[in-house]
Structure to design on (239 residues):
């Protein structure tokens, strides 16, 4: 009886807490946890990410993001091939095994400036979360949801984007005590904007690394939403 009462009190507390907390309040608490000194907008650092996938060679990427200088670079090595994409104030440069390529030679290697921009947006978004949820065109849901995922309880923000930004629907899972971001998940939508329930992926975040005073998840393990099939893992390699 005592155990049952304790569980009931815990459930009531959690339920009431999640209902009282507004989406913007949850986001600000999460940002305060990950970026307590507001360093993201001045982010300037270089870090290494190792990607492993089943039945595929390891890929090591050295990434530089310098937001004040509008500079981004990623150098990725896989097997014997190294590619570099650099964007500086919108100017694009591409290298293949250390040799600078013009647009025609780059196209022969399946390298484009559009891909450079894609990488810039990808790494800036994922490694800038949850701070990037303040960006224009980002729409928080009206309520904070309570969800249980893989045996743990979370406070969850549902996020959609203006059409000019993207059409995917994202869910961000935060620890209800510390407000650390521990999972994110996205789904594709159809032409009517409805979620395709078997589309998309979820990403489990474990460990933390400090970059520019920001607590950034160290390990990201990717899975398909459909059947939970494992895709691969990105790991921040500390010096």
């Amino acid at each position: 009886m005592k155990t049952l009462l304790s569980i009931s009190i815990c459930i009531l507390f959690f339920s009431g807490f999640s209902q009282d907390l507004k989406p913007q309040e949850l986001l600000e608490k999460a940002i305060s946890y990950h970026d307590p000194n507001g360093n993201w907008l001045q982010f300037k650092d270089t870090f290494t990410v190792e990607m492993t996938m089943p039945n595929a060679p390891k890929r090591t990427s050295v990434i530089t993001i310098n937001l004040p200088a509008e500079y981004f670079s990623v150098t990725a090595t896989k097997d014997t091939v190294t590619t570099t994409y650099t964007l500086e104030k919108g100017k694009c440069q591409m290298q293949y095994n250390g040799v600078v390529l013009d647009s025609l030679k780059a196209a022969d290697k399946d390298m484009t400036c559009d891909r450079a921009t894609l990488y810039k947006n990808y790494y800036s978004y994922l490694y800038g979360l949850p701070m990037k949820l303040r960006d224009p065109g980002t729409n928080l849901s009206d309520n904070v949801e309570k969800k249980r995922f893989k045996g743990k309880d979370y406070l969850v923000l549902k996020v959609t984007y203006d059409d000019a930004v993207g059409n995917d629907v994202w869910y961000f899972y935060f620890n209800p005590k510390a407000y650390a971001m521990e999972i994110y998940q996205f789904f594709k939508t159809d032409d009517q904007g409805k979620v395709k329930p078997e589309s998309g992926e979820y990403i489990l975040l474990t460990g933390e690394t400090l970059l520019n005073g920001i607590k950034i998840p160290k390990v990201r393990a990717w899975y398909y939403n459909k059947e939970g099939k494992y895709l691969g893992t990105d790991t921040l390699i500390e010096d």
In short: The first helix runs from residue 2 to 20. The first strand starts at residue 44 and ends at 52.
